[in-house]
């Protein structure tokens, strides 16, 4: 898909707490009519080896063959999307407000964007919906709709990361199983996982960030990507992006508070499953919510080259899935 190059001007980049990283500006987006913020970290363009070596401890067959992937520069949210942010999308209470620093990358009628239904039960399953906790039990469709809504509110183009972008960001230049190397004893300093989570997720940003300033890339909650999962790994996969054509399975990355160290490796992949809606009483089952996946969340990215409108829609699209 052909891309349109666009220089992001001052109005499109600054709001609060601007920081120069990799020669680009990281920034904080403040949503109108709220105290909710979205901190975006600038990541450089580059190439990396996607997947894991055959002798990597914990490696699954779906992590290969290793492929060299070129990645364009992009911004990624410093933290997983929180309930504070996600509830603004669910409640739609700020849709009518003007954003003084609204960008010009996206021109969308916000009234035409589908909204997630208000959940009928506590989707945190008792683990907390305070503002700094990650939003969970959301489907990939709902996460993409949030990105479309966020784009309309801010005028800047947001979407879910591709699987390649996610692994590139998690590795932060490393070729080892973890961005810090191979010493699993270090994992507790960066991640909430099976060994230290007490079987619950935690507020975002409590652990140390990776070298590129991203928090909770390992553990806490597993994160949606844009890619269809294929069990044969990358042998017959369209890289760097495999479009979704069926509701299941879709790729999640990073592992969660429920997982052991091997599931938190940079190359580890998780495929979504229908059983995550096992207790859903609706018929048809919800397009927006899971009932049994409180370990599933997401974060967002913003490409530095703004794609044409039709490409934006392809990344947001549910491709007719129910």
User: What strand order characterises the main sheet?
Assistant: 1-2-3-6-11
Question: How much helix, percentage-wise, in residues?
Answer: 10-25%
Instruction: Please tell me how large the radius of gyration is.
Output: 18 Å
Query: Number of helical runs?
Result: 5
**Termini gap:** 26 Å
Most strands sheet = 5 strands, antiparallel
What does this structure look like?
The protein is built from five helices and eleven strands; from the N terminus they run αββββββαααβββββα. The strands form three sheets. The protein has a five-stranded antiparallel beta sheet, with no helix packed on it. A four-stranded mixed beta sheet has the order 9-8-7-10, covered by helices on one side. A hairpin with a 6-residue loop joins β2 and β3. It has 322 residues and is of the alpha+beta class. The N terminus is likely disordered.
Search tags:
single chain; 322 residues; alpha+beta; 4-stranded mixed sheet; 5 helices; 14% helix; 16% strand; disordered N terminus
